[in-house]
Q: What sequence folds into this?
């Protein structure tokens, strides 16, 4: 091995060697110091990021919770979504191909979340790693949420679903507070209550369905009694958009399926009513009354009245063949009803003749929003033997009597049935559902934090 | 020659001292990171434990007390113990959910080991120890502006360290929990 002459000389005389060696050692030490500091710094950065990822995940989770809460509260239709804090119509759920989200909402401590809700999912669509299979009475939506803090992003997705339930909670007549059946009533179907069922002399009831505090009083006994059901909870009256007028004939549609309620077709009354017939309707107050000898034909559609009173003798109310009619009685107490007090009255009294070519309870449905209008009365009417229809008035007292046989279903706070009342439950009313309301998580997955394109639900 | 050796010794001494100092700093930084990692894991674990509690029972058993010590999470409990400032850097506060009869969340971790108790507790993870503080507050939804729309869970985790060590800042994680049974109420605007 050949060393440079200068180096051999230095080795030989021992001069000028120590300091270069020390410098080399110092260089190595410096590198070690640098490495140690770099490792420590990277560990610290990694730790900070680790903490942020946890915060971001919880922020994303908060977005899912918020979206579910608002879905349950706002009850959007299957064609609608939620953007920001409002229900958005179908055409406003996307801008081009870009779904519109809630906008960033602060969670505190620098964390934010944003979520996107889908419209109702259809068979074959995907969410949270699963392929959707649409089911009857089941509303399914996909929610994607992104949580962010200090540049760290987490993205999660869930499938939330809401199951519709039958509108009528018993197969017959339900009075949440009470049901009173006067002498010789005959009921084919169930009669239910949370509290008191009173059966006077000679009453025949196929089956009584009682809540935990329910009891039967009076002198007759149900053929069969089922106890400790419920307690029955009054449903929300599905008033939907029924207070809003249809602007044109084309917008006046038959009642929607699945518990959703469209705009009203009240203008059909104005055009169809004979001014001399005793029918009086004010579009300003949405009050309809029928006097002596009045005759009115209700065409297919949704109607929303602040009051609907039939008081004159020899009146006739007709429905058309194949035309389903939903009548909502609104309330001055409901925000957005545009009803002025007194409102909420529904009275059919004194010789009203119901002409119903359909002979099906689904074709004439009455919904009363609250009890502000007082007692709902169906009394002293005639309808060729049988009256087919349904009444949903969970906050009202309903008094029915001296009519022909009632075929359908009744749901009210209090029900009073006059002597000799006859009732028959119609099974078809079981197809009526409450709107999907309570969204529950059915599937969850975390998606890659970044996505290509503009659709935040892509890549999950 | 002697001078050269002395200078070399001086250089090496300075270098070694620097090395020792740097390694000590790195050790402290690593220790701090280890503690912060453990704290973050504990915070997430605690939040997941809380999320498993039924919604109705997500409430404070009693009102926590305000602390005057800024490093104590109770510092952000407002005087009177009815509100909690959920953001350390903002003054926004929410009303604490306090339901003595059904609440599961204790106000103080003292004497409560996390392995035995749910809610505020004292935690141990290897050589790292500390306290977990839980706060449940009512969150107002920006849509349905009722003051009890849904609940915010905030977990604050502290680590116990010798006075000579750097004290890690409190790890704080929040999330929201909606009532799984909450639907549109009759006669309610939203």
A:
């Amino acid at each position: 091995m050949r060393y440079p002459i200068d180096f051999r000389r230095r080795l030989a005389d021992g001069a000028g060697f120590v300091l270069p060696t020390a410098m080399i050692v110092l260089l190595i030490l410096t590198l070690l110091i640098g490495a140690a500091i770099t490792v420590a710094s990277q560990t610290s950065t990694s730790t900070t990021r680790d903490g942020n990822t946890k915060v971001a995940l919880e922020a994303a989770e908060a977005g899912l919770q918020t979206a579910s809460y608002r879905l349950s509260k706002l009850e959007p239709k299957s064609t609608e979504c939620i953007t920001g804090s409002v229900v958005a119509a179908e055409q406003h759920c996307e801008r081009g191909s870009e779904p519109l989200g809630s906008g960033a909402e602060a969670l505190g401590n620098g964390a934010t979340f944003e979520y996107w809700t889908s419209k109702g999912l259809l068979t074959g669509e995907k969410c949270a790693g699963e392929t959707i299979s649409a089911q009857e009475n089941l509303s399914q939506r996909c929610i994607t949420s992104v949580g962010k803090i200090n540049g760290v992003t987490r993205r999660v997705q869930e499938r939330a679903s809401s199951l519709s339930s039958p509108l009528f909670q018993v197969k017959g007549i339900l009075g949440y507070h009470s049901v009173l059946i006067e002498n010789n009533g005959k009921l084919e179907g169930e009669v239910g209550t949370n509290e008191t069922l009173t059966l006077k002399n000679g009453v025949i009831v196929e089956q009584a369905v009682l809540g935990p505090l329910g009891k039967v009083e009076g002198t007759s006994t149900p053929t069969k009694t089922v106890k400790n059901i419920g307690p029955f909870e009054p449903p929300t009256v599905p008033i939907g958009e029924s207070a809003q007028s249809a602007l044109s004939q084309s917008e006046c549609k038959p009642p929607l399926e699945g518990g959703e309620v469209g705009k009203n077709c009240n203008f059909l009354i104005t055009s169809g009513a004979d001014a001399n017939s005793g029918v009086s309707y004010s579009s300003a107050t949405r009050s309809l009354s029928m006097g002596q000898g009045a005759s009115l034909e209700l065409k297919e559609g949704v109607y929303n009245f602040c009051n609907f009173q039939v008081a004159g003798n020899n009146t006739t109310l007709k429905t058309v063949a194949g035309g389903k009619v939903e009548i909502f009685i609104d309330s001055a107490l409901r925000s957005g009803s545009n009803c002025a007090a007194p409102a909420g009255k529904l009275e059919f009294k004194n010789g009203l003749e119901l002409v119903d070519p359909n002979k099906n309870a689904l074709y004439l449905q009455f919904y009363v929003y609250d009890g502000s209008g007082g007692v709902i009365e169906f009394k002293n009417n005639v309808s060729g033997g049988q009256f087919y229809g349904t009444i949903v008035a969970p906050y009202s007292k309903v008094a029915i009597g001296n009519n022909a046989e009632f075929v359908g279903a009744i749901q009210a706070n209090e029900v009073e049935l006059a002597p000799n009342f006859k009732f028959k439950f119609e099974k078809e009313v079981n197809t009526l559902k409450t709107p999907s309301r309570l969204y529950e998580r059915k599937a969850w997955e975390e998606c890659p934090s970044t996505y290509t394109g503009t659709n935040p639900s892509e890549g999950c | 020659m002697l001078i050269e050796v002395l200078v070399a010794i001086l250089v090496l001494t300075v270098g070694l001292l620097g090395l020792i100092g740097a390694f000590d700093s790195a050790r402290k930084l690593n220790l701090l990171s280890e503690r912060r990692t453990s704290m973050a894991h504990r915070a997430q674990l605690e939040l997941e434990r809380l999320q498993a509690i039924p919604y109705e029972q997500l409430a404070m058993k009693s009102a926590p007390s305000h602390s005057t010590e800024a490093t104590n999470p109770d510092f952000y409990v407002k005087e009177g113990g009815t509100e909690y400032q959920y953001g350390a850097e903002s003054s926004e506060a929410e009303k604490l959910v306090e339901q003595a009869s059904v609440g599961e969340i204790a106000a103080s971790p003292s004497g409560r080991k996390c392995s035995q108790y749910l809610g505020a507790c004292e935690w141990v993870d290897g050589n790292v120890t500390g306290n977990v503080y839980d706060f449940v507050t009512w969150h107002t939804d920006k849509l349905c502006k009722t003051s009890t729309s849904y609940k915010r869970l905030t977990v604050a985790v502290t680590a116990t360290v010798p006075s000579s060590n750097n004290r890690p800042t409190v790890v704080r994680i929040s999330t929201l929990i909606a009532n799984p049974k909450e639907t549109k109420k009759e006669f309610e605007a939203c």
